[in-house]
Amino acid sequence: MSDPQRGAVIQRLPIDTVERSPFQPRREFAAVELDQLAGSLRRHGMLQPIVVRPLASGRYELVAGERRWRAAQQAGWSDIPAAIRLLTDSQAAELAIVENLQRQNLGAIELAQAIARLIADLGLTHEEVAATLGAERSTVSNWLRLLDLDPEVQAQVGEGEGQLRAGHAKVLAGLKPADQKRWAQRVVHERLSVRQLEAQLVRAASQQNLRKSGANPDLARLERELGEHLGTQVRIDHTRSGNGQLVLKYGTLDALQGLLERLGYHE
């Protein structure tokens, strides 16, 4: 039968003719969740078919629904209901990412890797990826910055107990690898919020600048307090003639937006 809203034909396919998509952003599937879903499939069947696209070999490539596909295999099914759609590589990659985003089960690093693949394999620009995901270009750029993290730190990013949140990861991405590791450990051990991490980084940078330059301790204190208040690194360059400049530093466009809001500026 046809699905006019999706432009697909739905039928049951031998489960061994379906293969995993190279565009699937998710790399990990919780065993407990798969066990539960397999049990549900045995009792109630599959309420929503997977989405596939036909391959020249006569087989089918999974576009959306890998968790259901895996659970169906675990449940011992020999065939599976599938919506067959004619899709380009770009469309298949877009659907795979969007499905995971809508289900809110795509990790921060997995999302960053998926975005990087859209850009590298399909030649999409940051603007095109942003339009696909319904996000700002700056948001796409900030997600990609997570791939600048040291691999050990990347492995710590997640939503579980003792892991780094995406907000922490974006802040840490602007540091050197050794500093990333050191501060990642502090975040986990001290259970720092993103704002607390930013404040401690500002304080550490101010103290380091003071040691290097032998600066006026009153100005150094003002730099530290103003930096903690604004959530960013502050530098005061004061000359003997009495003038100078106030420099506010930021690591990402998201951080700049937050800084502008704290300064009372709204577009």
Describe this structure in words.
This protein has 267 residues and is an alpha/beta fold. The protein has three domains: 2-88, Conserved hypothetical protein from pyrococcus furiosus pfu- 392566-001, ParB domain, CATH 3.90.1530; 107-191, Arc Repressor Mutant, subunit A, CATH 1.10.10; 195-262, no CATH class. The chain is built from twelve helices and eight strands. It has helices at 31-44, 66-74, 89-102, 108-122, 126-133, 137-145, 151-154, 166-172, 177-190, 194-213, 217-230, 253-262; strands at 2-3, 8-14, 18-19, 50-54, 60-64, 79-84, 233-238, 244-249. The strands form two sheets. It has a six-stranded mixed sheet, sandwiched between helices. Strands 7-8 form a two-stranded antiparallel sheet. It is elongated. Residues 1-5 have low confidence and may be disordered.
CATH architecture of the largest domain: Alpha-Beta Complex
Broad structural category? alpha/beta
The tally of beta strands, per DSSP, is 8
Q: How large, in whole angstroms, is the Cα Rg?
A: 24 Å
